[in-house]
Amino acid sequence: MDGMLQERWDAVIFDFDGVLCDSNHLKGETFATLYADDRPAVQDAIRAYHRDNGGMPRREKLARFERDLLGRVLDEERLDRLVDGFAAAVEEAVIACAEIPGATEFLATHAGRPSLFIISATPHEEMLRIVERRGMADHFVSVHGSPPGKAETAAMLLARHDLRRERVAFVGDAVQDYAAATALDLPFVGVRDRDGRHPFPEGTPTIADLRDLTAVLSTL
After folding, report:
1. Neighbour-count burial of 146, counting CB atoms closer than 10 A to its CB (0-12 exposed, 13-18 middle, 19+ buried)
2. Do residues 218 and 5 make contact, with C-beta atoms less than 8 angstroms apart?
3. Are 100 and 20 in contact (CB under 8 A)?
4. Model pTM score
5. Using CB atoms within 10 A of its CB, is residue 161 exposed (0-12), middle (13-18) or buried (19+)?
6. What is the Cα–Cα distance from 76 to 97, expressed in whole angstroms?
7. Which of 97, 178, 108 lies closest to 134, judged by CA?
8. Counting Cβ atoms within 10 Å, is residue 135 exposed (0-12), middle (13-18) or buried (19+)?
9. Which of 34, 111, 129, 163 has its CA 20 to 30 A from that of 66?
10. What is d(CA 35, CA 146) in angstroms, rounded to the nearest whole number?
11. Following CA atoms 9, 137, 176, 195 in sequence, which dihedral angle do they give, to the nearest 10 degrees?
């Protein structure tokens, strides 16, 4: 099956949180902690918004918390403090957290053939540090955080590496991942959350974790 996978695909693009690293829950808790002085209902709403809007850059997410959930006039200085507070709290936790089952085995087996990439909404330099410190960097041709957006980064990779769209799979767990793949006509595989939920249209190929990825990619 591994040989068949290598013949079918030239590249696989991965999101990071919730796809390679089991970090979505801890990021949701970190967002909620920033609002520890607010009532519990606010923190619950923030957790739910984070869960339902994976793949969104943290600054945009925090701006929406302030404006849409709390009805506050957007204060850029406060927003800067929230972004900095989130970054300080979350990076070490992501470095230390568990992987999505099957990630190590898939990356070790397939690194280099097909070519592997990461595109994440995490700020670029932070994403590079996390991948390096988790000992994953050697598996990937390149690692990309934000900005720019995921579709723009994926389009750049297609052009830079002369990749055919039908031979590049995008693996993600968020609406933004699906939207980026759809915008570029890339085959997509969704990763379900811990409770088996996912935000993708009916009929989208999905997996519980990366132990199932080779089998699903071999059928597309």
Report:
1. buried
2. yes
3. yes
4. 0.88
5. middle
6. 31
7. 97
8. exposed
9. 129
10. 24
11. 90
Which tokens sit at 156? 């750049």
By the 8 A CB rule, do 97 and 120 touch? no
Residue 141 has pLDDT above 60, yes or no: yes
Contact 149, 173 (CB under 8 A): no
At which residue do the structure tokens 């919730």 appear?
A: 18
Tell me: the pLDDT tens digits for 26-48? 988 988 999 988 889 999 999 88
Whose tokens are 């690293």? That residue is 21
Beta-carbon contacts of residue 45 (< 8 Å; ≥ 6 apart): 69
The winner for highest mean pLDDT among 48-52, 106-110, 167-171 is: 167-171
Q: What's the pLDDT score for residue 7?
A: 87
Residue type, 61: K
More confident residue, 155 or 86: 155
CA terminus-to-terminus distance, the chain? 13
Does position 1 have pLDDT exceeding 60, yes or no?
Answer: no
